[in-house]
Design goal:
CATH architecture of one domain in chain B: 3-Layer(aba) Sandwich
Number of helices of chain A: 14
Oligomer: heterodimer
Order of helices and strands of chain A: HHEHHEEHEHEHEEEEEHEHEHHHHH
Largest interface: A-B, 26 and 28 residues
Strand order of the largest sheet of chain B: 6-7-8-3-9-10
Number of strands of chain B: 10
Strand content of chain B: 25-35%
Chain lengths: ~425, ~240
């Protein structure tokens, strides 16, 4: 056991001496591995970044909110089965709330109607187009986790009275009023005047696609007054227990069927969506990226491994006489095998560290240059890339090292 | 028989100790394509502790094959080979490696030092394979180098040493594990005659210190330093006798 330890230490010493002695050769060989490791780690970073960004975005949607809508998320092929469904009406939310109140131990907390459309918002000369306008009730405050950078949400009275007040998303407020306070300013939303009573703090975007800060929240009654709700609304239902989403969903389905007065055996004429569905949507994309990544990574590592194998074969050939000498001095097969394996692994490890450093730099650079792109460097990446490096070294070094360990000492000693 | 010379005055001959190497009826065949080469055709030789033996013979006599056999680098095709009472003929690679490590100290014609390692590291090498701890390795290696007169060259690499010094490092390496025999293959073959004489003087000193030496050579002058000469021809022992 001790002997093995000494042999290992000696092998590492020799390996690094060899690498030092053949700097250029080692660097060129390691290049393949460096590229491979950069590919591995970048891919990991990208997938992780997407994951993180996605989870952050989902948290903004609220992981304790169910969406009652006409259409399921993510598109359907048999669209004709959905097109004729009756639209979701804001009034359905009141009925749902009524049912929720009557249900003991309900898993549902509150149902909030939400109507949406795109509007332009103006204040004086400044104009923001395509603002996501939401008409909802005061209960909306219970759905969102975001804070207000200033002001507040409208209250029940303001909502019920359809008062012309609004809450702006951070970006909208900033575009219209720059550094001034937006409170009590009048803005024109879709050509109708509203008084700003609050601004939601900056939330970021959903997967960098859809900004939560580009919105305006109005009382539903005011929304209804100026904009059509005939296209239908959606109802967001907050649940009491995140761990029982499936049960809550079932309860909501039952409640909604009662609201819709659907007969038993009839198919639901509404859909209950949840953020979990997005996950299902994203998984194939992630898998696609991972698969493509695996292919690129595998290819680059394969090329790197061939380089290592080649250089190890050369190294064995060059040092045949040395192998003979070592065998004459008492090196066992294992000793020789380990020596060349460790040499291959050492080059790979150096390549791995360099690759990791490059990736780290790249990630920092990308993060600084494009904050919207979700990238994240992690400790597990370090371990993964080290493991991949070692594995590459072992796989590519094994054949030559095995050959070296099997050399006949008489033949090896005679080799010139 | 080649006539023996009168030994130098006062030359010490140590009494032979216990049997170390016992070879009986050893043959070795090589397949070279279609041809079968009989490198050894039945060689028997016994070597005792404290002997100083030279193996001589022209090229093709089986001298190298016998040396490889004695050094446990190779195993016989047939015949008996016992090293310190243990049968070597049937040993597997790793067992042979252990015997070479503990029982045999090799000295090569081309020195065979690791070029990028210091003298000290070169001498430590067999001790690594023997499983000695670093501190003890170092102490023994330093002692061995001092014994061959290189105490001041511990940290020199082979290319910073003269040929004679390199061979001394190799001899220190051969000695460091206190082997049963020192096996030297043309130890002066790559040295000028003056340095060769120095190396042979060192061998004489090692012999007087109680080491067992086997020198393989084709040079009569070198062989005459030994106390006993085994001459080979065509894979057979032609003569085996003491040097007077």
């Amino acid at each position: 056991m001790k002997r093995l330890l000494y042999e290992l230490t000696e092998s590492f010493r020799i390996a690094f001496a060899q690498i030092r002695a053949n700097k250029l050769r080692s660097v060129l060989t390691a290049l393949g591995v460096i590229i491979g490791i950069v590919a591995v780690t970048l891919m990991g970073t990208a997938i992780r970044g997407i994951d993180t960004g996605f989870n952050k975005s989902l948290a903004m949607l609220g992981d304790d909110v169910l969406y009652v809508q006409k259409w399921p998320w993510g598109g359907v092929e048999d669209w004709w089965n959905y097109a004729n469904r009756p639209p979701i009406r804001p009034e359905d939310a009141d009925k749902l709330n009524h049912i929720i109140e009557q249900t003991p131990n309900s898993l549902l907390e509150v149902a909030v109607p939400v109507s949406t459309r795109g509007n332009s918002v103006k204040a004086g000369e400044n104009k923001v187009s395509g603002v996501f306008t939401i008409g909802t009730t005061a209960d909306y405050g219970r759905l969102i986790s975001a804070d207000f950078s200033e002001g507040r949400l409208f209250n029940d009275t303001e909502a019920a009275g359809g008062r012309p007040v609004c809450v702006l998303g951070f970006d909208v407020a900033e575009a219209l009023f720059q550094n001034r306070s937006s409170i009590d300013q009048t803005v024109m939303i879709g050509g109708h005047p509203f008084t700003v009573i609050g601004v939601v703090a900056k939330q970021g975007s959903f997967l960098g696609l859809f900004s939560f800060d580009n919105q305006a929240i109005l009382p539903l009654e005011a929304f209804r007054k100026y904009f059509s709700v005939r296209r239908g609304a959606e109802i967001r239902v907050k649940i009491t227990d995140k761990t029982r989403v499936a049960d809550a969903r079932e309860e909501l389905t039952g409640a909604m069927r009662r609201v819709r007065a659907q007969l038993p055996g009839e198919r639901d004429n509404f859909n209950i969506n949840e953020q979990g569905a997005f996950k299902a949507q994203l998984d194939p994309i992630k898998q696609g990226i991972a698969l493509a990544g695996l292919f690129i990574t595998g290819l680059s590592l394969f090329v790197g491994a061939i380089g290592i194998m080649n250089i190890t074969f050369v190294s064995v050939k060059e040092r045949t006489k040395e192998i003979g000498t070592r065998k004459a001095l008492g090196a066992r097969r294992r000793t020789i095998l380990l020596q060349f394996l460790i040499e291959a692994v050492s080059i790979c490890l150096i390549g791995g560290f360099v690759g990791l450093g490059l990736t780290y730099g790249l990630v920092l650079a990308v993060g600084a240059a494009f904050p919207a792109i979700p990238v994240e460097f992690s400790v597990s990446l370090v371990f993964i890339s080290m493991a991949v490096s070692i594995l590459t070294g072992i796989i590519s070094g094994f054949a030559p090292a095995w050959g070296a360990s099997r050399l006949d000492p008489v033949v090896a000693l005679r080799y010139e | 028989m080649i006539p023996s010379q009168v030994p130098a005055a006062g030359r010490l001959t140590r009494p032979a100790g216990p049997l170390v190497i016992d070879i009986a009826g050893v043959t070795k065949l090589y397949e070279m394509g279609e041809e079968t080469i009989h490198a050894l055709r039945g060689v028997s030789v016994q070597i005792h502790r404290n002997e100083y033996l030279a193996i001589m013979g022209p090229s093709g006599s089986g001298k190298s094959t016998l040396m490889n056999m004695l050094g446990c680098l190779d195993t016989p095709t047939a015949g008996r080979y016992e090293f310190n009472g243990k049968s070597v003929a049937s040993m597997i690679d790793d067992e042979l490696a252990d015997i070479r490590n503990r029982e045999i100290g090799f000295v090569f014609q081309t020195f065979n030092l690791l070029p990028r390692s210091t003298a000290l590291a070169n001498v430590e090498l067999p001790l690594i394979y023997a499983g000695y701890a670093p501190a003890e390795r170092r102490a023994r290696a330093i002692h061995a180098l001092e014994n061959v007169g290189l105490g001041s060259r511990l940290h020199h690499k082979p290319n910073e040493l003269s040929g004679g010094q390199r061979q001394r490092v190799a001899i220190a390496r051969a000695l460091v594990n206190s082997p049963s025999i020192i096996l030297a293959d043309e130890p002066t073959g790559n040295l000028d005659s003056k340095t060769g004489v120095e190396i042979m003087a060192l061998f004489e000193q090692l012999y007087e210190q109680g080491n067992t030496l086997i020198v393989v050579t084709h040079e009569e002058d070198i062989a005459r330093h030994a106390r006993r000469i085994v001459r080979l021809r065509d894979g057979l022992i032609e003569s085996d006798g003491s040097v007077y």
